[in-house]
Amino acid sequence: MLAILLPGTADAQPAAPVQTAWRLLDYVAVDYPGAVKDGRIVSATEYAEMQEFSASARERITELHGSAAKSGLLRQAGALDRLIAAKAPADAVETAAHTLAADLIKAYPVPLAPFVAPDFVRGRALFEQKCASCHGVTGDGEGPKSVGLDPPPIAFLDKARARERSTFAFYQVLEQGIDGTSMVSFADLAPQDRWDLALYAGSFAYPSSKVAEGERIWKSDPDLRALINMEKLVGMTPADLAGGIGEAKADAVIAYLRRNPGAVVPRNAGTLSLARERLGEAVTAYARGDRKGATNLALSAYLDGFEPVEPMLSARDNALMVRIEGAMGALRAGIANGAPPTSVRDQARALDTLFGEAEAALAPERASGASSFFGAFTILLREGLEALLIVVAMLAFLRKAERRDVMPYVHGGWVAALVAGAATWAVATYAVEISGASRELTEGFGSVFAALVLLWVGIWMHGKSSADAWQRYIREKLTTALNARSAWFLFGLSFVVVYREVFETILFYAAIWTGGNGGSVLTGAASAVAVLAVIAWGMMRYSRTLPLGKFFAYSSALMALLAVVLIGKGVSALQEAGWLPVNPVAGFPRVEILGLYPTTEGIAAQLVMAALLAIGFGRNRVTAGTAKEATA
Fold this sequence. Notes:
By secondary structure, the protein is an all-alpha fold. It has 27 helices and two strands.
């Protein structure tokens, strides 16, 4: 069940004091060996710092709100103080400090892992920009600004320190800095940037030469993969892992995972465990007053937990997919609008039930040949129809205008989109996984762009729906209007509208293909292509016999309808990516083929688009009437 159903989370402690205490304890565990050795003080400065950090951690625990575990934590903190005062062995102090830190997090939960996998390349760029001047480009602690700093910057190449330091510990230091040192806080960086930077900083002691071996170990050991999720990856120290699999293996695995953290992200489409986990964290964050954190977690539950399985679920049970998508949007809206915590908790519980239904629908035994055929057929037909209508309308227009010389640009656009789609499939299959956010943003911005272009095209075509208007246009502008710039514009429009649909179709097909029944999928795709070809042939043939005025009237109506549909779909996709707010409208129908979604923002966008089209068409009628009077 969801973590939100566990007791004791509704009045959770604000994160900062807990994180500060955790950071201090981590430093004691890691740095104590540099202060005391064999019962003797080897560095008076370090020893004083250990005493100060331990006392500060105890003070912060004292300030936390009351809980059943607080008294036990304070006893542990007092015991740690006494161990340091007695100059106890390093392993005893390390164990006491790490145990207290772990128990502290259990009693007062705070976010311990990033919402999405950190980006190693982004981390390198941030390190070179923010940290290399002191810590050195190679992490040796000898950057140009390190001279004279007391204490000197940490050398990340120091293996002894690195094996005792988790990525979460690096993250904590970046967030809060270190008092009494030149290490300032980087709280101004976005949390995901701090995770990127923390992961990169923790990789120096584990060279890239060990990555290949680490990847081999990781991919060949299912028990290891089951053990390490994102929270484990950033929370454990290399020493912890070495205790389980040995030093040599641990070094190689750490080298690989800190450069490829996405490898630990769950990919099992049948469990929806990540969505459940993120929703539990979202409700916990919301209960303690962290609305921004709750919003990000709820968005991650959709984009990282549910969105990857949405294509397959849509193919097997589209009604259930729609219910889950709507419920997740409603939960995010509740968080954004300040709904009572109990209401948000109830919404999450309802989603947990829906996830159970989704798991049953996604079970391998439900992947019948008929369902795979139907899914492949309907997806390609649905996604391809919009692009087909726009491209065929452009080609029909150019033929009516006797500008066949420009038609290759339109053909080039949709062919290039298919090639780009094939490249996208190759990248998504063999290189990187396309995230839910990337998918929604591609669909969202592509739809909005196409809708705005069709707004202009629809109004323009409507203005030429009378024969007189078209003849005047031919005489005055056509010979120069479709110049090279206009031709490339048609190429761009053809590319965008087709690639948007190809991109979406590829991701759907990739999900369906994993369920087996490849022959049924290919048959469904071929059947959809055949239907689309018949529709295209019919449109081109019928357009030849249409009088010029009717052609432009029908084409403008089609462009107007598609503009309204695409603006609705674009707004919906941007909402799902978290770029626009979500305010559900109860009782409003959801009709995906028309771009109708039950949200205030989507309905408003479509009404605005319809109003702009009505204004444009109205002005065309006035202009046409004026022109007729002038001619008479």
